[in-house]
Amino acid sequence: MDSIDKDLKALLRIRQMRSDSLNRAARMREMERNFAAKDVEDKVSGLTTTETQVRQTQHECLAELVNGHFVKIDRVEAFSKMQLQGAKRIMDANRDIDLAQKHLEVSKEMLEESLQKSRAAEKRKIAIQEVIEWRKN
Questions:
Q1: Contact present, 111 and 33 (Cβ < 8 Å)
Q2: pLDDT over 90 (residue 71)
Q3: Would you tell me how many other CB atoms lie within 10 Å of the CB of residue 94?
Q4: What is the SS3 assignment for 20-74?
C-alpha cells in the first residue's frame, strides 16, 4: 500500500468523523425543532384553557352582581379589576405563543442549515470513497 492510499484512507476516516459529527448535530437540531413545535402546541392549548377560565369566571361574577339586590361599589371595582386581570392573562398567553412561534421558525432555519452541512459532508465522504474504489481498480 503506497502513501497515497494511506493518505486517502486517513482522509476517509476524517471525513467519516466529520460526517458523523454533523449528522449528530442535525439530529439535535431536529429534536430542538420538535420541542419548539410541541411548545407552540402547548401554548395554544393553554391559551384556549385560559380564555375559557377567564370567560367562565367573568360570567359567574357578573351573574352574582346582576342577581344581587344591592350592588356595592367595591364589588363593581373588584369585577372590573378581575376583567383587567383576565385580559392581561390572555395578552400574556398570546405573547408567549408569538415567542414560541418565533423560536420554532429559528429552530427550523437552524435545522435546515445543519442538514445542508450534513449533506455536503456526506457528499465529500462519498467522493473520497469513490477515489479509493477507483484506485483499487
A1: yes
A2: no
A3: 15
A4: HHHHHHHHHHHHHHHHHHHHHHHHHHHHHHHHHHHHHHHHHHHHHHHHCCCCCHH
